[in-house]
Amino acid sequence: MKSLASILGPLALAGTIVPPLLFLLQLMDEVPMKWIMLASAILWFVSAPFWLRGGAEPAPAPQDPPSNPT
Amino acid sequence: MNTTAETLAPDEFEREPVPPRALKGPSSFWGMYAGEHTAGTEFMIGPLFIAWGATAFDLIFGLLLGNLLAVLTWRFLTAEIATRHRLTLYYQLEKICGRKLVTLYNLFNGVLFCFLAGAMVTVSATAVGVPFGDIIRMPTFEDTMPTGVMWTLTCVVIGAAMTFVAVRGYGFVARIGHLAAPWLFLVFLACGFVMLGKLGTVNLFELIRPEPDAGGRIGFWGVVCFSWFCNAAMHLGMSDLSVLRFARKPGYGWASAAGMFLGHYIAWISAALLLVYWVRAFDIDPAVGAPPGPMVFDAVGWAGLLCVVIAGWTTANPTIYRAGLAFQGMAPKMSRGTATLIAGSVCTLAGIFPAFAMQLLNFVGLYGTILAPMGAIIAVDHFLGPRVGIRSPAGTTATPFNFAVLLAWLIPVAIALWLVFQHDVQAFFLPLPAWILCGLLYIGFARARQTSTLSTAPRQSR
Fold first, then answer.
1. Partner of B303 for a Cys bridge, out of A11, A41, A67, B440, CB 3.0 to 4.6 A?
2. Which residues pair with B24 in a beta bridge?
3. pLDDT per position as a tens digit, B313-336
4. Do residue A59 and residue B197 have CB atoms under 8 angstroms apart?
5. Touching check for B303 and chain A: CB below 8 Å?
6. Are B267 and B109 in contact (CB under 8 A)?
7. What share of residues in chain A are helix, strand, coil (percent, to 5)?
8. Contact between B39 and A70 using a beta-carbon 8 Å cutoff
């Protein structure tokens, strides 16, 4: 599963940024661009948990101040 | 976003220096900073620059300089102290000014963070409201009060959902935030590409030209100071000691460049282009602006709406959780769940009022002005200490409530608030002057306190 996710994850990121770039270069229309981006978003959230490192993170301790807001 | 401290600062070494075995490599910091600074509020900040009459020069070069100064502050101030002492802000402050004063300071943190989380609820609500069309009246930059019953209901539902998740648990949202970070940044970038495509040119100098009546409310130095100090509480204020104490060497402070130049440069300019396009295409008054949800939906569709909601949610949720912990610190007998519920309620109430999101530039400046000066106490203690005659550096003061520190903090903050509310000085200019004044006052008060202690000690001994 991890090896499949390591292919699908980058593919999803490419599907998020390449269509807008093609739209900028007038090589793709707006409607397909938006649908590919949505499909890529779904693909990303399905594949990223298997591809990216980092498990459940521990809760912050009361001693730590809140972190960055922006 | 808000994942760095949680990932790098597990629930240990809270009251002791981080040992060498627990130090982290540079990639952790570069990755975390890059992800942390792509939040839902970035969708507000970029367009607000346009509304405030920033030019292309202001944005391109002002953000470049301001973000560079922020990175230098992280590198040569925060990272230096963090890697020398390897303690949290809380514990280091506690050693200087006592536990009770730190608890009060953390309460300020908690309240301000509730309001910031409220701004994120507002931003998310503008996205959730898009499918409902005209049923929900979206707020503009000029709105400070709720825009109607449906708007209020939307914010209440979103705020309640965020609070529920924050009460139930923390790990899931932190995990989603971690996973979403690279995708979120690309959606911001995509918005910029699409807007440039629709505007028909990539020449930002041609695109970002404010109307003469925009008034130039922010200008070059305003952009510089905002980008430098929007995270003042983290670098000048030393909140990121909690993160950077895990760095092997101070050079890891350069990792903040990933957050500044991806999130606070590229993402802000991309978000600014959204409003530039709406001004031209839909004849929107830039001073009135447009809510981020519809603008992002127009640019990149449903993926954009998902981005706004996730960026707001993953930032607001840990913020509510942490604000709850701060409230719990004031009333230790209160359960964590109850404290989080209170924080979530305050956050939801703040979210209903668009004022916090629509006045975000000033609010973020105010937040830095109030919290950052406390970092000057640590900086003075670390860099100057005995050289300026302070003989009670961190670790030797046993007082539970150091009034010298309290006065040194409150006086600059009071002056700054007076300037903001009585003289309309923009708050993002004030964190550094307040920080410097706090440091100077601390030196003066601490020395006076020591002198009076010395003069009374012999009499007491007699």
1. A41
2. B247
3. 887 887 888 788 778 777 778 888
4. no
5. yes
6. no
7. 65, 0, 35
8. yes
